[in-house]
Amino acid sequence: MIPLKVDILRTHAAICNGFLIIVNVLVFFYEVSLPPRAGESLIYTFGLIPSHTGLLFSSHGTTFSQAFLPMVTSMFLHGGWMHLLGNMLFLWVFGGSVEDALGHLQYLIFYFISGVGAAVVHTIFNWGSDVPTVGASGAISGVMGAFIVLFPRAQVATLIPALFLFFTIRIPAFLMLGYWFFLQIFSGLVSLGVGGQQGGVAWWAHVGGFLLGAVLVVGEKRR
Question: Is the pTM of this model over 0.85?
Fold first, then answer.
């Protein structure tokens, strides 16, 4: 299922959401402009590597910034065009309404807290892994978690591929995002049985980001 738009009339322009999308795209253009060896070095330097956090508590001399700065920088790196486009589509569809509800600055803070929280959860579930993880999906999962709390009955225009045909339907947000969240949990549990990340996807970062995002906006929902 591919979300296309939501039926929420916003009162303010999604300035911060648009800024985040532009930064992600520009960083990706920089990534692909690098020669292969330099690109790999960029990923290993600024991508999230769980084992580096573990080394912080050993005698190997890893600094605090080396262990935790990638939890922020990894949010702006992507592994390919489809990775980037998929993440930016979900951010574009759901982020604007959440920003409108929270306010510009609060939304920006919320986004980074969700991303870092997702990175922490991923690190815990992949403790000791040397595989670098990149992508904004943890933070975007937080945005989706916030959306389902703030706008559970909003209708999401969704593109459904069926063999060689495509059609669109309108699905309530709580059904679409609830189904997406169930898939993340199921895939995360399967990944535990095969020893960590399955297919290079940080399932538990998605789960952690989604739950954190939902919890963070509960007070805003009540207000």
Answer: yes
Q: Are 202 and 125 in contact (CB under 8 A)?
A: no
C-alpha span between 6 and 216 (Å, rounded): 21
Q: Tokens for 69?
A: 């700065």
Contacts of 104 (CB under 8 A, 6+ apart): 12, 15, 16
Residues in Cβ contact with 35 at an 8 Å cutoff, skipping those fewer than 6 apart: none
| HSE of 173, CA atoms in CB hemisphere, 13 A | 22
Q: Architecture of 2-222 per CATH?
A: Up-down Bundle (1.20)
The ranges assigned to domains in the chain are: 2-222
Q: How many residues are given for the chain? A: 223
Q: Measure the CA–CA gap between 212 and 142, rounded to whole angstroms.
A: 6
Q: Within 10 Å of residue 82's Cβ, how many Cβ atoms?
A: 9
* φ, ψ for residue 168, nearest 5 deg: -115, 145
- Matching residue, tokens 């069926």: 162
* pLDDT, tens digit, 9 for 90 and up, residues 117-129: 999 999 988 888 8
Q: Is the CB of residue 136 less than 8 Å from the CB of residue 115?
A: yes
